[in-house]
């Protein structure tokens, strides 16, 4: 991997000059003075409250300000829930296939960009390596660093493999799917499958029985095969439109089936490369904001910049922010961070701030079964929030009551 350490340092400074990264080891939130962030446009599940406030006491949002609370004026800003990314392979020059230190680097990189809850995604590799990786990631999930594990591959269609090694692909044998679930020790959150392959539908049923999301992706399925998989329990479309047949008028394929079924949430990579704006609009128009989850599908280069990287066993060239395989030229994940996805959704795609928050926070939190803790700014939930300026640039990031990016507050 050709990552420039100097570039990495620059990326961690990357929130605007008005904000600064918090110290590496901030004081526990429980020991901090309660905080009232007052005067911002606060985005709640019921809508936006102008000149609203969010009260943080310890690690949680609360409904009542203690007498000793510090009141901070954040007028002319937005307060939104921390972002929730259910599909992410790495960042900051590191991947989730690396050492614990490298994994933490990737996690912290995305936290600087507002992602306070993150699921670590794997890429296709030898089964033994994936089992070992699952064990390591499950330990980090137990420590609260990540929200769980997403296995993307090896159970995907060779003709829709994207940036996965074809030599390592295999059919979704339920016994092998179960092997990965067991290796994750209860921390497996999602498995992406080409459900048309032998064992695909049976594997969907297995995943549903174990409370793991079955996601349809990297698939060559027909419309009818996709409907069968949804009826068996599949509930997510892995990066809709990408790595699947296009929408046809005689053979509508998986896209039509995934968009029309109210049981399915569709992932979208809103980086301006993976999707034409008309495709994004189509997804929002037909699925509705309550069934869209913005993801990064980020690889090592997120938060770093152009250069040569590895995605699993495959070499990737990143040029002008677009990641492609050196051999074959397929798009290889993204260099996206969710703050950029947010800003693009509002300023380029014309989505409302409320719908964007739903797609970035509330919907993915619901999918993960974490809506009681994260995904919205409500009393009793974790104090995970993002402070944005009027142009939707990040000015502060708080996770569990601690500033990850500390704004220079008066």
Report a brief summary of the structure.
This protein is α/β, with parallel strands linked by helices and 410 residues long.
Describe the protein in words.
The chain is globular and about 65 Å long. The longest helix is centred in the N-terminal third of the chain and has 16 residues, at 127-142. The model is unreliable at 1-31 (pLDDT under 50). α6 (223-232) packs across α7 and α9 runs antiparallel to α10. Strands 1, 2, 3, 4, 5, 6, 20, 21 and 22 form a nine-stranded mixed sheet that branches. The chain has helices spanning 5-12, 100-111, 127-142, 174-183, 200-209, 223-232, 253-260, 277-287, 338-347, 353-367; strands at 19-21, 35-44, 47-57, 60-62, 70-73, 78-81, 83-88, 90-91, 94-95, 115-122, 148-152, 188-193, 213-216, 236-237, 265-269, 292-295, 307-311, 314-319, 322-325, 385-388, 394-399, 402-407. It folds into two domains: 5-81 and 373-407, Urease, subunit C, domain 1 (Roll), CATH 2.30.40; 83-367, TIM Barrel. α7 (253-260) links the parallel β14 (236-237) and β15 (265-269). By secondary structure, the chain is α/β, with parallel strands linked by helices. It contains ten helices and 22 strands.
Span between N and C termini?
A: 42 Å
What would you report as the Rg, rounded to the nearest angstrom? 20 Å
Q: List the uncertain runs.
A: 1-31
Number of domains: 2
- Number of separate helices: 10
The H-level CATH homologous superfamily of the largest domain, spelled out, is Metal-dependent hydrolases
β-sheet strand percentage:
25-35%
* CATH architecture group name of the largest domain: Alpha-Beta Barrel
Number of β-strand runs = 22
Q: Tell me the structural class.
A: alpha/beta
CATH topology call of the largest domain: TIM Barrel
CATH class of the largest domain: Alpha Beta
**Approximate shape:** globular
Oligomer: single chain
Biggest beta sheet summary: 9 strands, mixed
What average pLDDT do the residues reach? 91
Helical content stands at 25-40%
């Amino acid at each position: 991997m050709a990552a420039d350490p100097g570039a990495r340092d620059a990326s961690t400074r990357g929130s605007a000059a008005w904000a600064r990264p918090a110290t590496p080891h901030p004081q526990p939130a429980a020991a901090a003075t309660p905080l009232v962030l007052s005067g911002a446009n606060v985005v709640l599940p019921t809508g936006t409250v102008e000149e609203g406030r969010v009260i943080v006491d310890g690690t949680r949002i609360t409904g009542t300000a203690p007498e000793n609370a510090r009141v901070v004026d954040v007028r002319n800003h937005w307060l939104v829930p921390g972002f929730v990314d259910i599909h992410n392979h790495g960042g900051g020059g590191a991947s989730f296939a690396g050492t614990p230190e490298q994994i933490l680097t990737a996690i912290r990189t995305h936290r600087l960009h507002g992602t306070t809850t993150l699921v670590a995604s794997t890429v296709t590799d030898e089964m033994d390596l994936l089992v070992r990786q699952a064990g390591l990631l499950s330990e980090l999930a137990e420590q609260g660093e990540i929200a769980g594990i997403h296995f993307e591959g090896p159970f995907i269609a060779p003709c829709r493999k994207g940036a996965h090694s074809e030599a390592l692909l295999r059919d979704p044998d339920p016994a092998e799917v179960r092997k990965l679930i067991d290796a994750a020790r209860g921390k497996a959150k999602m498995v992406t499958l080409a459900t048309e392959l032998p064992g695909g539908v049976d594997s969907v049923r297995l995943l549903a029985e174990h409370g793991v999301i079955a996601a349809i992706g990297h698939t060559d399925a027909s419309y009818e095969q996709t409907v069968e998989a949804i009826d068996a329990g599949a509930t997510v479309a892995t990066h809709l439109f990408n790595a699947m047949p296009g929408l046809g008028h005689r053979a509508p394929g998986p896209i039509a089936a995934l968009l029309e079924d109210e049981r399915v949430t569709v992932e979208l990579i809103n980086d301006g490369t993976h999707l034409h704006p008309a495709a994004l609009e189509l997804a929002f128009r037909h699925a509705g904001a309550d069934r869209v989850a913005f993801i990064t599908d980020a690889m090592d280069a997120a938060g770093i910049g152009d250069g040569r990287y590895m995605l699993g066993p495959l070499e990737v060239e990143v040029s002008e922010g677009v990641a492609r395989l050196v051999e074959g030229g397929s798009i290889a994940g993204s260099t996206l961070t969710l703050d950029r996805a947010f800003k693009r959704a509002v300023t380029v795609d014309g989505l409302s701030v409320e719908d964007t928050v739903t797609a970035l926070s509330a919907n993915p939190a619901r999918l993960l079964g974490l809506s009681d803790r994260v995904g919205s700014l409500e009393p009793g939930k974790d104090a995970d929030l993002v402070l944005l300026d009027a142009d939707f640039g990040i000015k502060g990031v708080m996770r569990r009551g601690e500033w990850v990016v500390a704004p220079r507050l008066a």
